[in-house]
Write a structure and sequence with these properties.
The chain has 419 residues and is α/β, with parallel strands linked by helices. Helices cover 39% and strands 16% of the residues. Bound molecules: pyridoxal-5'-phosphate (PLP).
Amino acid sequence: MTATLLQRRERLLGAGAPLFYREPVHIVRGEGVAVFDPDGRRYVDMYNNVPCVGHCHPHVVEAISEQVATLNVHSRYLHEGILDYAERLADHHHDGIESVVFTCTGTEANEVALMMARLATGGRGIVCTNAAYHGNSAAVRQLTRPKDNAGEVRSIPFPETYRCQAQDPLNWHLDRLREVIESFKRDGIPFAGTLLCPILANEGLPDIPPGFMAQAAELTRATGGVFIADEVQAGLGRTGLWWGYETQGVQPDIAVMGKPLGAGVPVAATAASRELVETFRRGSGYFNTFAASPLQAAAGNAVLDVIENEHLRTNVASVGQALRDKLKELQAGCEAMGDVRGHGLFIGVEWVQDRAAKKPDRAGAVRVVNAMKDKGFLIGNAGAFGNVVKIRPPLVFSSVDAAAFLTAFEETLGELPIK
Ligand SMILES: Cc1ncc(COP(=O)(O)O)c(C=O)c1O
């Protein structure tokens, strides 16, 4: 069955369409924290942040179904649902975030943020990190590991304390940002802003020098740019707070949201001050057929209902902390676990060839990920070197689920050729 599906997939989607795991998982159904294969085998989904309130949450399913059965049109009509949703989203942000541009994907939302920053500042130059991913359109993919620092998008080494050799990692990394901003000036490219994931999820969730994000935002503004937080992975309760930027004590000018907002209905958003949003509206005439629709609103509002009513941020903070503490205990007996870190229910375990040298061990991380899949737990590997075991269960993940995961993880450490 799997072999036949693989062949069909290659033919119909083209070889090279990405697939997880050495032996891919065929799933047909999801419920809560789990997904199931056709034989009823249960896998705990500890990777996908789209079904953030759990797969097929009854409240979300009902809200989406009802809306589809009532009305679904594009956004050029008056409809209260999307206004209620925009209001709720903005209210969960800091006071400077007032208005919202809806889109369907994180890529589009970042595209809007880039346009907004450039229209508002009259600049072009954008700073990102050297191991970022923010999306795949022509404009946004320029922020994926820029090859050189010669164009309109330039990168800084992602700020971190694990491998950084500098005496003062905070100022070392701020100096890199200062240099890149100055290089724009030197090359006659007016600066538009800095776009960062506030917890550097794709970079591998490193510990960021405390104060970096806030000082980077200050530096960005002092040199004429706007500070953009890409919350596509970090946002909506994932860290135990509403937004990743809150973990870093920074308030962005523009917040970009996506993945978990719609529980699978494509919903993404770029939020900012009314002034920034209206500058964007005037300058771009932006329209997006499937965005700001009643269906997006129904999905988005239902997801917010669940996070609020089930107190999921509290659950994320407590279960996440306990899981991280237990993984740190396991780290003491496992040389390959170079670092255990993260925020809330978003944990990264840095897999290394030996703890002192910190040499990344991508193959080791991939072995762990595949072994855990065989035990019924879906995790992934990510990061600048692909060696960070990425653990990101839904926000409804319980302490019982965490205990089951830890048992399987400990077994895996005993079974694999790991020091
Ligand atoms: C931080 C971040 N921003 C943006 C995106 C792009 O989102 P989408 O795939 O919905 O276009 C991703 C996707 O993985 C992401 O991780």
